[in-house]
Amino acid sequence: MASIAVCPGSFDPVTYGHLDIIRRGAKVFDQVYVAVLNNSSKKPLFSVEERIELLREVTRPFPNVIVESFHGLLVDYARSKNASAILRGLRAVSDFEYEMQITSMNRVLDENIETFFMMTNSQYAFLSSSIVKEVAKYNGNISDLVPPVVEEALRKKFASLTS
Ligand SMILES: O=C(O)c1ccc2[nH]nc(Br)c2c1
After folding, report:
1. Count of CB atoms situated within 10 Å of the CB of 25
2. What is the ipTM metric for this complex?
3. How far does residue 2's CA lie from ligand 1's centre (Å)?
């Protein structure tokens, strides 16, 4: 039976940290659905469509990765994909409390879906979409933090917001 995982997030935008988790997850699971959250309360910098387009571009080398958006409960989306696993990255101890809360809630909602955590590569332990946006906003060097296509999209986005 195929092992299917869902890797959820806002990916606003995708970073090398996210891509590291997705790449490694795609080696473990037969199929990985990268699920872009569409019910985030925060106002995103990129639209869902823009985030999906960037994710599809950077995950092109991984044939068993599918990028989609979802709204509502993650476990409902995972069940609809016949996924038995949720895949998350853990960057540092500071991630643990939030992830434990979400995982406990998801287990209550559907005990048949397990959450698997991967320690992020240490070079990305500090990395988040928020910090990348903050650095890009002030024209800082983000070439080691995001793929070139994402760097270009950030430059264009901030140029359009300031023009
Ligand atoms: O970019 C973020 O906000 C963010 C959050 C939580 C995260 N866990 N693992 C990774 Br990679 C990661 C990235």
Report:
1. 23
2. 0.91
3. 26
Residue 145, sorted as left (phi over 0), alpha (psi -120 to 50) or beta, turns out to be alpha
* Residue type at position 57: E
Instruction: Reduce the DSSP state of residue 146 to 3 states and report it.
Output: coil
Tens digits of residue pLDDT in 86-136 = 999 999 888 999 999 999 999 999 999 999 999 999 999 999 999 999 999
Pocket of ligand 1 (CB under 6 A): 15, 17-18, 21, 88-89, 91, 95, 120, 128-130
What proportion of the chain, given as a percentage, has pLDDT over 90?
A: 91
Question: Helix or strand or coil: residue 85?
Answer: strand
- Of the residues 10, 18, 51, 88, only one is catalytic, namely 18
18 is catalytic: yes
pTM of the model: 0.95
